[in-house]
Structures are given as C-alpha cells and as structure tokens.
Model the fold of this input.
Amino acid sequence: MSAITWLKSQRPLAGRALAHTIWLNTFNGLLAIAQAWCLAIILNAVIFEHADLAAVQRWLLELLGLLIIRAVTLWLGERTAFAAAAKVRIDLRNQVYRHLQTLGPAYLATERSGALVETLTKGIDDLEGYYARFLPTMTLTMILPLALLTVVLPTDWLTGAVLLITAPMIPLFMILIGSGAEVRNQRQWKQLARMSAHFLDVIQGLTTLKLFGASRREVAIIATISNDYRISTMQVLRIAFLSSAVLEFFATVGIAIIAVFIGFRLYDMALPVPPWFKVPDIDFLHGLFILMLAPEFYAPLRNLGTQYHARMAATAAAEQLIRVLETNPPNAPVSSNPPNPPVLKGKLEGISSLAVQFEAVHFSYEVGRDALLGLNLHIPAGQRIALVGTSGAGKTTIINLLLGFLTPTAGRILINNQNLAEIDLTEWRRQLAWVPQQPRLFQGSIGDNIRLGAPNASFAAVCEAARQARIDSFINSLPAGYDTPIGERGAGLSGGQIQRIALARAFLRDAPLVILDEPTANLDFESERLVQESIDALAQGRTLLVIAHRLATVRRANQILVLDQGQIVEQGTHATLAAAGGRYARMIAADRSHLGNLENAN
Done:
C-alpha cells in the first residue's frame, strides 16, 4: 500500500470533525464574497454617489456582522481541524502500540528503539498537518474557486477567462517543485530517525563508552550525523521557500493582470487586443467587487501550495508507520479473515493449576536457523519443572512460545488439552506470572510497581505479597515505605531487591502458571538465598517453570529437563541425573563450587 493510499484510508479516524472543518472553511469563503460586495457598495456610494453615513449605515452594520461571523467561523474551523488531527493521532498511536504488543519482543529485538520512538512521537505528530490543514485546503481548493467563478463569469467574462488561464499555473509548478522536495523530505526523515536511534543508543551505553574511553569518538559521530541532518533540512527549506515564492509570483501576476484589465476599461482606455475582440464594459462597483474577489480566488491555491509540504512530511512518516503496521508476528499465519478465537475454558483464577504439553514443536527464526527440533515437553499441573542447558539450547524460545510472542513453525502447544493457537492471548496471559532474568521496574512508587499485574489490589494484599517475596522488611525500613519513588529500571535498588519486587508481583498476580527465567542470575549469596525462599513459597499450589544456569535454583524441581540444540537430551530428578554421569552431571561439576557454598549455608 502506498503512503498516500494509506493516509486516505485513515481519514475516517478523524470522524465528523474533518467534515465540519471543510464546511466551515467553505462557509467562510462564501462569506468573503458577501463581504467584498458590501465593501464595494459602501466605497462606490461614498466616492461616486457622495452618500453620507446614514445612507451607508445599514451596509456598514452588515459588513461588521460579516467580519464577526468570519472571525468566529475561522476560530471554529481551527478548533475542529485540531480535534480531527488529535483524534487521528490518538487512534494511530493506540493502533501502533497494540500492534507492537502483538509483534512482541521478537520484533522489538530487531529494531532500534530510537527509530521506533521517533515513529511513535514525531512521526505521528507530522500527520497533524495533513489532516488538519492539507485535506481541508485541498477540498476548499476544489469548491471555493468554482464558487467564485460562478459569481465572476456572469459579471465579467474577461476576468473569468484570466482566472481560468492563470489558476492552473499554481498547482502545476507546485507539483513540479514538490516532486523534488518529496525525495529530500523522505531522506531528511530517515536521517532524523537514524540520529534519534544513535543518540538513544549512546545515552543508554554512556557508562560503557566512558569506561572504554570511546565517548569523545561518539561525540564526533553524533556531530557528523547532526550536520548531515542540518544539511538535508536546509535543502528542504530552500525548496519550500522557492515553491512559496513561485506560487506568490503567479498569484500576484494573475491579480495584476485583472487589475490592469479593469483599470483600462474604467478609464475608457483601449486594451492591446485585436480589433475583432469585443471587450465588455464594466463599472466601478463591479470592477472593485471583482478586484477584491481575485485574491480570494488565488488564496486556496496558494494555501494548497503551502500545505503541500505538510503532505510530504506526512507521507514520509506514513511510510515508516506502514512498515511497522504491515509487519506480521514471527511465523504467524497471514489471514484476512481470522476466526474468532475461543476463550480459555474452565475457571482458571486463584491458584488453580495448568498443565502444558509441547507436541513435536518445531521453530525456526529463519531458514537454516532452527531453535527447536520436534520438541516434546510435558509440564504436569501443580509441579515444578526446570529447564537447563547451555546458551542457545532453546530455553528462551520455549518461553516466548509459551508467552505467545512466537508461533510454532510446526507442532502444537496444549494448555489443559486445548491448543494454545485457539486461545485468546489476552485471556491466556491473565493466567501467567512471569519473572524475567532482568525484571523491568518503572518510574513510580514501589507499591505501584508491585501492583503492575493487579492494579486494583488492596494495600493489604500488596503488603502480603511483599512479605511472601521476603522484601517487606526492606520496604518498611524506607521513610516513605511502599510510596517510596524509584527510578527507571529500578534505579536506587540492588539486583536482589529488584528481583524480590518482581517476585512480589508474581505473588500478587496469583496466577496458576509461573514462569521464572534465570531468577537468581547475577545475585550475591544472601540475595540468592532470599529469592530461593520466595520461589519455594511461590511454587506451592502452582505450576512452575524455571529456567536457570545456576543449578542450585533447580535442585528442588520435580523434574529437570536438559536441553541441547532444541531437543531434550536428559530428564529426571536432580539425584537421578547427577548419578547418571551425563550432560547434567558435567554441568554439576562446572557449578560445584557454587553448589557447595549453598549446601554449607543450608
């Protein structure tokens, strides 16, 4: 789909506000005709008929009323135009955000965060000019000049002929100049997205750049990118000013020709035309009336040329939005009429358990890059299952499949004997609690972060979840307690404290299936002990899937599954696998020092 076609398809999002804007602008143009007629009558009466104030008082009052009505109409038109554009922006942001949720982390991992932020912010903001100004102006250009011609032609066909000949010059040159500007505008947008993405990457990695002495080098790179963006911006502005000058030139020439033709005839001077060309006569009243209408005739055409640059900016932004919105989730089947997904059957609230079954699941990120090869995996209800293996064995892929961020290339995933592909993902995720290796805490209070999965939870429930996660004593020691503000990503807290707040979320969520991804990674011994105690409490009455490199975390699992190259190569309890002398036993040997410390502590 082209950018212009897509922009037109989003027009219904503006609702009635856009139609109101067009009608108000059209009404304002018609009022300009009446205003010109009133002013022409007043001037003709005062100058040639020597009328006094009483004679023209009625026309003066009508002129004043027209000025007030036009001012109110312009104000209402601006308000409705802004409302139309605001509605489009809100709906599109919601649409793009929900689509990014559908695409999931698998898509976001391949995109630069700065470019996506630029698309969601400035990109969608650039659409305002298209819907608030360009579309109303384009419609007005098709209506108002025709309305003015219907008034001018019966009065003076010569002036009407001049208008008909000169009017096409403005859009013609607008298109010729605009075609070159559009290419430069798209290049400018790409450079802006690149600069934003690079700048965000530098800010996020500032500590690393400082430690490796690379910060000054990055400053030079940012300066180069900024200079390239400056040059492309000035190129666009140069063309914009050139196009405005050309449009003003043709409009001014058209008005000047009309003024000359009217002036020659008012002074009974012969126009330089062939003898057989009969020039119509005109009086001062109608000549002044037509002369005041001429600028109103060219005004929509000039405005269209000015707002054409808003169209170019919207087109460049739309191309990026289309690229995001037309991206399908990884391995998702493309269907124009997808069936209505059934809701997960059975009552699954509280601490009811779920059983999960992977049947011959195969997944490939791309051709030749297989992550899972016919995986058969059974997670019984109410049990603690652990997945271990080296990096790249397929553990993260299993999590993303189970969370609904990926779809199996082949095979199926069963939840209580129902195919996950037939379950509404929103309903399914309500049954999950997830504690990642690096939990994400958001700027706000500690209590709000714990309530992330249960925003309506009571304060008592939050306190109980914190107690079960072994973080309540730390929170109560803070001056503001649960209202203590924390920075983005948990700034001001240790890794163990962040991990236990994430576990408190899982307790408060009270979901029947809990997924833990490396819950004790990068923690000191004391923090790991507290987190492990919380995990043991969390496993009571729930189905628990634990993924870990540090084997101390999985020793209490009912079943340990050892993954290698997308397949289960060993399974059993800790004792049986340790005695078997296989891959798990070798992993124990590599982790022996850490396990010894944990056993001594216990």
